[in-house]
Each structure stands twice: as structure tokens, then as C-alpha cells.
Design goal:
Elements (H helix, E strand, L loop, with lengths): L2 H28 L3 H25 L2 E5 L2 E5 L4 H45 L10 H12 L1
Length: 144
Amino acid sequence: MTARHHANHRIASQDDLGRAITSRLHDASQQLPHDVSERLKAARMLALEKRRQAQVRLASAVVTSGSSAALQMGDGLRGKWRLLGAWLPLLALVAGLVTIDFVQDDFRAQEIADVDVELLTDDLPPDAFTDPGFAQYLRLNRSE
């Protein structure tokens, strides 16, 4: 069997399940008392009315320019504050990351400078640290 056949079979079984649930809900709703069904009907009507009002509020104005038109979203100044509120956390995050990068670079440079100072002010020349015999000498002296 192909993947398409499996997908079609799954969709068909989901449709059957949906029909069975709908049928049972319809049968159960027929057995509800009249006052409960009226309250459910009123709640549905209220929900639909709120949905309709929300859709109307989405576009606050239509702006025309010549022969073209566009929907203006938001309430002018309030829309700009909302936009600023959306971008402000991102700007704070970027500023924080740049600051952390700057501080870490400065810290690394200071660590490297400290190591260089220690190497240059030591009694041994810097070439001694690269000598394999000196590394062996240090290992033997640490174990004692």
C-alpha cells in the first residue's frame, strides 16, 4: 500500500469518527430540557455577535491614495505604542548581547595580557616552555 492510500484511509476514518460524534451529540441535544437548550441558543447568539464585532474592529480605517485603497490597522498613536512595545524587548535583547560580547572580549584580552606578563617577567626564557625536555622536567617535579 502506498503512503497516499494510508493517508486517504486515515482521513476517511477521521471523517467517520466525526460523523459518529456529531450524531451522538445531536441525539443528546434532543434530550436536553427546554430551558437548557434556550440558554445554549442564547450563548451561541452572543458568541456570534462578539465574533462579528471583533471582525469589524480589525480594520479601523480605509486610506485612499489616487485610485488605490488600503486598510489602516490600529488607532494611530496607540498603534505606534503597540509597535514600539513589540520591538522594545528585541532591541533590549540585542543591546544585551552586544554588551556581553564587548565585556567578554575585554575579559579575554585582559587574561591574555596577564599570561604574557607572567611569561615575560619569569626567570625562564619563553623558548623553555616549548622545549619537550622542560615539559618532562616539570611533570617529574610535580609528582615529587
